[in-house]
Amino acid sequence: MNHLNIKFKTIEDIFSSLAEKLKIGYKETLGEYSLLIPKDVGEGLINGFQFPSGLSLYNFSCKFNSTTLISFKHQTINPVKIIQCIQGSIESWLKSEKKKHLLKPHQYTIVSSRLGEDHTLRFEKDVAYKISYLEVNREIYTESLPFNINDANPLFYDLFHNSHILYGHLLPSSFNIFTSEIVKAVWECDLKGLPRINFLGAKVLEMMASTLSTYQKDIIRNRHKGLKPEEYDAISLIANTINHNLQERKTNKQLAEIAGMTERQLQNCFHKVYGKTVNEYIQDLRLSRALELLQTNENSISEVVNSIGLSSHSYFSRKFKDKYGISPRDLIKSS
Which superkingdom is the protein from (predicted)? Predict the structure, then answer.
């Protein structure tokens, strides 16, 4: 078995590291990187593109002579990754996950990892693969949007806000015909130079939009199980209320009144949708918002504590360290 460990900060790092480990060269043309698999290792091509708005696309069209693991570790961000399997069944997992996730042809998964965590793909011996791997830099992507990510659907806020609200492999599912056609157009593009880059950049945005639409429908379909439509709408309202009024420290009783439910109904329905209690959701949101504010180096700990609706500095510091393994003060010093 061959194991390629790729630590990187940029797309160029990925291809220079792959080239070094495979003992072969790579080339770059107008921001497109490509590498041919050497014959003693297998056959095929790996290429990658980096686009504005924080999007990078990697395509694997290859076959290996022995089972090969490729582990990616981004050293500066914790991106969202959308993996689409076109040909060949591939296993995907994060280092701290307890299970491996099998993607079959015409399936996708969304992967949300922690900073500096290994994400591994397993390519079986003598199997022909076509895999598209779309990486999203959450911070750059959300800054490129013409609105505040807080105003987005809570599903997308949770996914793209630079936080740990969501973690792991999310909802492996089949991608739709529209996405399939977009992926096919990307793989079959034979344009050269600037027209090629423009075409692929547009297709990547289409791919992202189509996949997110499928993700939203899949999530809603799953979360609606056991809930009436009006109950789901009420929970969406509560999530939005919490996101936009974190500093106000609303009680569960107040939130239940907004939802038109009893406190017990609110907790039961909220748990069905988000897999956690209202208080757990609020705490995760507060800590992730605090992490974002502290990383800017523009806010004191007191300002952060007040802005997320807490009053006790010691309580905040303890919970923050429990979640992220570092105290707020030490995080500021290291930034």
Answer: Bacteria
pTM as predicted? 0.72
Helix/strand/coil percent split, the chain, to 5: 45, 25, 25
Q: Can you spell out the DSSP letters for 123-150?
A: EPBT--EEEEEEEE-HHHHHHHSSS-GG
**Vertex 96 angle, CA 162 and 56, to 5°:** 45
DSSP letter at 246 equals G
Domain boundaries, the chain: 2-222, 229-334
What number of residues does the chain have?
A: 335
Q: pLDDT, tens digit, for every residue of 132-172?
A: 999 999 889 999 999 888 778 777 888 887 555 667 887 67
Q: What is the pLDDT of residue 164?
A: 56
Q: What is the pLDDT of residues 84-103, one digit of tens each?
A: 999 999 999 998 887 899 99
Say how many C-beta atoms besides its own lie within 10 A of residue 59's C-beta: 22
Q: Taking CA 275 as the corner, what is the angle to CA 169 and CA 289, rounded to the nearest 5 degrees?
A: 80
We find that the CATH architecture of domain 229-334 is Orthogonal Bundle (1.10)
Fold observed for domain 2-222: Jelly Rolls (2.60.120)
User: Which regions in the chain score pLDDT beneath 70?
Assistant: 162-166, 171, 222-225, 335
**Antiparallel, parallel or unpaired: β 68-74 and 119-123:** antiparallel
Specify the pLDDT at position 315: 92
Sign of the dihedral through C-alpha 295, 298, 300, 305: negative
Q: What are phi and psi of 304, to 5 degrees?
A: -65, -45
Cα-flanking dihedrals φ and ψ of residue 164, to 5°? -115, 30
CB-CB neighbours of 310 under 10 Å: 19
CA distances to 47, 200, 243, 328 from 59, in Å = 5, 12, 36, 39
